[in-house]
Amino acid sequence: MTNPNAAMLVIGDEILSGRTRDANMYHLAGQLNEHGIDLKEVRVVSDSPLAIIAATRALSDCYTHVFTSGGIGPTHDDITADCIAKAFGTTIGIRDDARAILQAHYHAQQLPLNDARLRMARIPNGATLIDNPISKAPGFTLRNVHVMAGVPSIFQAMVASILPSLTGGQPLISQTYRIERGEGDIAAPIGALASAFPTLSIGCYPFQKDGLFGANIVMRGTDPEILDQAMVRLKAKFPS
Amino acid sequence: MTNPNAAMLVIGDEILSGRTRDANMYHLAGQLNEHGIDLKEVRVVSDSPLAIIAATRALSDCYTHVFTSGGIGPTHDDITADCIAKAFGTTIGIRDDARAILQAHYHAQQLPLNDARLRMARIPNGATLIDNPISKAPGFTLRNVHVMAGVPSIFQAMVASILPSLTGGQPLISQTYRIERGEGDIAAPIGALASAFPTLSIGCYPFQKDGLFGANIVMRGTDPEILDQAMVRLKAKFPS
């Protein structure tokens, strides 16, 4: 049985302009891996309706799940919810349950639920809410698209809210072995190992540091015994 | 005059599995921004020929430039060069000038130019080489696609090799102002500011740290005087 797969859509000019280093991709990749959902593609697009709508449709058609990050706050540049609604040809408006969550939150803080904050209760028709324990304004799931905030702490909390409800598969496990020799010296034996263990994904990730060339060999698979067998072969070929 | 635009294609299971945090996207975004080339989209795909070929074609059709990172080393999982050749229906083989570069490099190091290392001289027909001052094995440009290594130090050196040869536009400059109030309180005035300065891109990036909610307002544009005018208005509205 193969694992469910997924794509991520990062919405944000701040990543593309080089201002901000993305953190959500790295977090989601690790979480999905542990849950047995294979992340197959990530797209980063600008704060442009056409780009967001086209990417949402394309990824939703191709993968079991799509996770988005960014653009669901109260400001003029937060256009994700409207774009997701448009991508699926559905309407969007302020929803009572989302409004009630915000009302309670801002009431407790003695802050007004003004028009800007109320924008965060705009949810596409047919969506279910994703819990946000940090700042309350919810994310949502429409069809197979899970729409979450871009602020890393809130994104992470939303991932924790949604992930247990999704059917996972077998977690991919990995073993890494560091070899302090140039890739060119080890390529042929590693290629032979990859052929001998077709159920494993064997990657070779070179590094160079202080004039030393080497590579980390990462072997990934779902069967720990097969991984162990491959590691024994690798270590015999390249004793440390 | 609008700036040339670009996309990036990151090739690597190690990013999608959550093993490695991507560094090349952040570096390239900053460099392109300074050079006046607008990065509009990034895709991260797995080490799969179909995925690499499809993404290369799609991005090459849509953008002035495409920059790729990863998969051009000597090992079995380095398949980028072959995929780029396939994407454009051209042949690939060991090229004399690339072989000569490798020959000189490995000869100086008293290392054999074995079959694995020689793979790095495989260059698609019609491509031009991109200089690699670090480990010599060249990248290449085929049509509008610039193919570079994934190791960050080598990627950065290759970006430095290729970027001066590309026509740039006006560098996007930005100014940032930090406001220690919740986004919901500042959203309306910031939206009005964005409407008043249509040539600027004004983004609102919330943060929350130690219970404090706030936002960085980032204004981007190519005209420093207009940026200054907008910043005066912003500071008058939200004195620090």
Largest sheet of chain A: 6 strands, mixed
Any idea how many domains of chain A? 2
SS-derived structural category of chain A: alpha/beta
Discrete helix count of chain A: 9
Quaternary state of this entry equals: homodimer
CATH topological fold name of the largest domain in chain A: Molybdenum Cofactor Biosythetic Enzyme, Chain A
Gap between N and C termini of chain A, in Å? 36 Å
Mean pLDDT across residues of chain A = 94
User: How many runs of DSSP E, i.e. beta strands of chain A?
Assistant: 11
Properties at a glance:
homodimer, 240 residues, alpha/beta, Molybdenum Cofactor Biosythetic Enzyme, Chain A, 6-stranded mixed beta sheet, 26% strand, elongated
